Amino acid sequence: MHSISVAMERLCSFLAQDIPATPGVRHIDIAFPLNDAFDPLAWLGAQASYPQFYWQQRNGEEELAALGAVQHFSSLALARQFLKTHSLPDDTRICGLNAFSPEKSHLFLPRLLWQRLGGVATLRLNLASDHSLQDDAQQASAFLQQLSQSKPITALAMHKVRETHLPEKPEWLRLVSQATDTIARGAFDKVVLARVTDLHFDRGVNAIALMAASRRLNLNCYHFCMVFDAHSAFMGSSPERLWRRRGTHLRTEALAGTVASHPDDAQAQRLGEWLLADDKNQRENMLVVEDICQRLQRHTQALEVLPAQIVRLRKVQHLRRCIWTELHDADDEQCLLLLQPTAAVAGLPRQSAHDFIRTFEPFDREWYAGSAGYLSLAQSEFCVALRSARVSDSAVRLYAGAGIVSGSVPEEEWQEIENKAAGLRTLLLMD
């Protein structure tokens, strides 16, 4: 018998016991043996319950899959308040997305949460009720009964019928020139401009299958997928951490500056060495570092900025400087508002760049360049929601952005967003 089946049986046995008809929040944990190549993403994809959320840390050490919700939160502030006011265990996890405008979120306390840290996994069932945990246990039992067995993820097999960009290339080139002219007038130092590519196919697109394909090929990335319902999802494979908190210890980073990657190791190394030496990309990265440090300095102990390193991905390479510190208070809402959006996805100064984006970018970023991950009282981790896509039935919207600073060349910035979008686009258009 598969490990997931054994775990479900044990959960059902617990729910059959006497549970008090009192309000509150409670969880039941089942140790989950990793002995049968269980894939939590495939298990999620087999279910008809929503929301579904998958998240994997970029080094592969941590992974979670959440199914169903007992509580929804429209902001991270409300999620944090729930954790604190209910005196919940420090490891109670709420997961999901924060939008580009960080006051909007789609976070939830899952009905079922599978989580793995290294080689140890657990399946957790959450109960929550303002009236009767006994009643919620009955609902949870019915929820478990209607779950399906895991099955292999079907490979993507679609035919593209239409592709458009917003803005199209001529408008993009003009927008970049407008941005550099505005920078020259001193309105801001940097602005990150984005483009969407809308792909329309001859049949519905399976977001879980797209996530699986990206997870397989886009290495050294966070992988995240939020399936809102049977028709819509948001997913991506991002190289960038927004923050990781363990107690009061905080790690964040500046990921800015880009060059193409190459399948040949020697050629990729030469491109990486050029990136390390390039003045425009170094300036772009240091603007982000300085902004993060300024935002954090009043709320932390000493800040440690590590030397620049190259992050090599499948289609692009980036400059990264890690920033480590200790917070005065373990406050995830504060982390979100201080760090998002960073200068790497909005610009600098943040408000001036944000105003330019809101005025001239011809679409709503929604979840793009927001963040995806989880929070608990003990720890939290969110990645920046980059290299991402919105799936709506048979349409997929791909997002890609480029940092514009003094000296940016419009044609080169167009090629940069082409390279970034290729990480997911090539998966959808494989023969």
Automatic annotation (TrEMBL):
Its cofactor is Mg(2+). The active site is at K190 (proton acceptor), E240 (proton donor). Mg(2+) binds at E284, E416. The keyword Endoplasmic reticulum does not apply. Keywords: Isomerase, Magnesium, Menaquinone biosynthesis, Metal-binding. Its EC number is 5.4.4.2. It catalyses: chorismate = isochorismate. Pathway: Quinol/quinone metabolism; 1,4-dihydroxy-2-naphthoate biosynthesis; 1,4-dihydroxy-2-naphthoate from chorismate: step 1/7; Quinol/quinone metabolism; menaquinone biosynthesis. Residues 169-420 form the Chorismate-utilising enzyme C-terminal domain. GO terms for molecular function: isochorismate synthase activity; magnesium ion binding. It holds the Pfam family Chorismate_bind. GO terms for biological process: menaquinone biosynthetic process. Catalyzes the conversion of chorismate to isochorismate. Belongs to the isochorismate synthase family. This is Isochorismate synthase MenF. The lineage of its organism: Bacteria, Pseudomonadati, Pseudomonadota, Gammaproteobacteria, Enterobacterales. The gene is menF.
